[in-house]
């Protein structure tokens, strides 16, 4: 269940009545931390919690976020036989945040978390139980003593206990101002004119103060609005009858701002075959190997802050871009529980096991876990840090990065423009062409190579576009330069399924 528990937040909102616009909201650290926690949510978690909260109950507020929702739904419908292990599907559909421990301590945790469990030897006196833990309960995973690793060990990680600030991400006594487009600044950290300038406010004529209460539903609306709108606070507070009706406000804009230019050309390339309607150059679907499907599924594991880091704060999600840039530009280290947690929000590591072996994206994985043991209480737990001090019994465990891929190899997959993934099958493929009334003579095949630059472009497009492949790969421009390969398309299909 969502951890709502009737929680409410009081906001002091300054409104320009003439323009029907929210100028900013003054909030306490509890609410500011909930908004900052948006950046810690993996994309798969966002798709899941929005779908769970809204469902189909309100056609005015659809839950689709670009192509991410269809990517998520496609995975949920994919037979487990196509994945390397059944538990991998559950991991991707319910991705874990490396901030799980922190988010549990928020006044409101909207991540709908599942408790992370690792598994160790059931024999408390076994001298090998700390040497390695398993990520799944499996009869094939055994301890060095020979017993099956089936004793659950929880991950209990939070920096809150390491500091006396009382906050989770930020100092408890700090209050913040949040603009309509989610720029966040400490409350009058500098001169008030400069503070208003940092929020993009140049005129307060006709402004009036209003007290507003946010509960769980409003926070969920704010999360959704931050992914849909440039003005989520105005949409939510002043335009409740038409919340997020203008979905065209956020559109895909080509171009990436990846900082490490040398990596763009140094990475491997993935092969992708585009099946296109010749008469109008419209993409019908793509034929992909397991490495490309693995790459797509990895989107679900990346937190919003990680996406911002990869794309250089240029995601087309303007409100989220502003929130992320506020951390670097306006919220100094002194307002955070620790500089380390600020850096983690801006450049998060994925939890252990969430980076696949052959990933093309430069993702960082938390490869070190600390195994703690209380001999007196016969209690054990894992954490990403040693703790407040080095007392007590603990051992460091270091894991190899990217140990396995998500999907099985030697199989072809069909990927539609909105990133729905299904196993490739000749009969179903021909049925699709027949249903669309497209003759083979009007079909051509184009082979493309997807490197890091193209991969980041697809990731960016997936956030706002339902044509993520067309937009991310700039297919319309590409096809103008490509020759006709209709015969090659038919011949390769025949080879695949013979």
Offer a quick outline of the entry.
This protein has 498 residues and is α+β, with helices and mostly antiparallel strands.
Summarize the structure in words:
With 498 residues, the chain is α+β, with helices and mostly antiparallel strands. Helices cover 31% and strands 17% of the residues. It has 18 helices and 15 strands. The strands form four sheets. A five-stranded antiparallel β-sheet has the order 6-5-2-1-7. Strand 1 (9-16) and strand 2 (21-27) form a beta hairpin. It is flat. The two termini are 49 Å apart.
Lateral strand order in the biggest sheet: 6-5-2-1-7
How far is it from the N-terminal to the C-terminal residue, by CA? Answer: 49 Å
Beta-sheet strand percentage?
A: 15-25%
Biggest sheet architecture? 5 strands, antiparallel
Shape: flat
Please, how many helices?
18
Low-confidence residue ranges: 243-248
Spell out the key features of this protein.
single chain, 498 residues, alpha+beta, five-stranded antiparallel β-sheet, 15 strands, flat
Q: How would the blueprint of this fold be written?
A:
Layout: E1 9-16, E2 21-27, H1 29-36, H2 43-54, H3 68-77, H4 86-93, H5 100-104, E3 117-120, E4 151-154, E5 176-179, E6 184-186, H6 192-198, E7 207-214, H7 216-228, H8 232-237, H9 261-266, E8 270-277, E9 282-288, H10 290-298, H11 304-310, H12 318-329, H13 339-346, E10 368-374, E11 379-383, E12 393-398, E13 413-415, E14 421-423, H14 426-435, E15 443-450, H15 452-464, H16 468-472, H17 475-479, H18 486-497
Antiparallel strand pairs: 1-2, 1-7, 2-5, 3-4, 5-6, 8-9, 8-15, 9-13, 10-11, 10-12, 13-14
């Amino acid at each position: 269940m969502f951890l709502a528990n009737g929680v409410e937040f009081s906001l002091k909102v300054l409104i320009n009545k003439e323009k029907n616009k929210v100028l900013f909201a003054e909030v306490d650290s509890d609410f500011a931390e909930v908004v900052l926690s948006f950046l810690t949510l993996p994309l798969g978690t966002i798709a899941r919690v929005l779908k769970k909260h809204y469902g189909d109950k309100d056609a005015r507020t659809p839950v689709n976020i670009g192509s991410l929702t269809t990517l998520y739904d496609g995975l949920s419908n994919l037979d487990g036989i196509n994945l390397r292990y059944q538990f991998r599907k559950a991991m991707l559909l319910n991705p874990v945040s490396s901030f799980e421990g922190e988010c549990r301590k928020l006044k409101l945790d909207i991540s709908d978390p599942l408790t992370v469990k690792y598994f160790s030897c059931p024999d408390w006196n076994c001298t090998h139980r700390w040497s390695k833990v398993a990520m799944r309960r499996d009869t094939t995973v055994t301890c060095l003593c020979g017993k099956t690793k089936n004793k659950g060990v929880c991950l209990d990680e939070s920096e809150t206990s390491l500091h006396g600030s009382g906050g989770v991400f930020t100092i408890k006594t700090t209050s913040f101002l949040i603009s309509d487009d989610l720029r966040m600044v400490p409350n009058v950290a500098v001169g008030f004119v400069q503070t208003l300038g940092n929020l993009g406010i140049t005129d307060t004529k006709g402004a009036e103060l209003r007290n507003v209460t946010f509960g769980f539903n409003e926070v969920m609306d704010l999360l959704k609005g931050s992914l849909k709108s440039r003005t989520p606070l105005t949409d939510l507070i002043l335009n409740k009858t038409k919340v997020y009706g203008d979905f065209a406000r956020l559109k895909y804009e080509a171009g990436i701002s990846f900082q490490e230019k040398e990596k763009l050309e140094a990475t491997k390339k993935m092969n992708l075959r585009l099946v296109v309607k010749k008469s109008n150059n419209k993409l019908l679907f793509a034929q992909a190997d397991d490495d490309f499907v693995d790459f797509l599924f990895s989107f679900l594991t990346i937190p919003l802050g990680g996406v911002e880091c990869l794309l250089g704060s240029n995601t087309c999600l303007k409100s989220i871009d502003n929130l992320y840039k506020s951390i670097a530009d306006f919220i100094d280290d002194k307002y955070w529980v620790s500089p380390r947690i600020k850096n983690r929000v801006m450049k998060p590591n994925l939890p252990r096991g969430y980076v696949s072996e052959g990933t093309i994206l430069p993702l960082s994985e938390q490869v070190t876990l600390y195994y703690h043991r209380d001999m007196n209480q016969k209690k054990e737990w894992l954490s990403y840090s040693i703790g407040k001090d080095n007392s007590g019994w603990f051992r460091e465990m270091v894991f190899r990065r990217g140990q396995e891929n998500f999907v099985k190899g030697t199989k072809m997959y069909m990927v539609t423009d909105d990133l729905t993934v299904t196993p490739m099958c000749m009969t179903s493929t021909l049925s699709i062409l027949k249903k669309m009334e497209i003759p083979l003579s009007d079909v051509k095949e184009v082979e493309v190579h997807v490197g890091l630059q193209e991969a980041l472009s697809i990731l960016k497009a997936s956030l706002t576009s339902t044509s993520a492949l067309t937009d991310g790969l700039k297919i319309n421009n590409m096809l103008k330069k490509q020759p006709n390969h209709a015969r090659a398309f038919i011949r390769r299909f025949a080879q695949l399924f013979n």
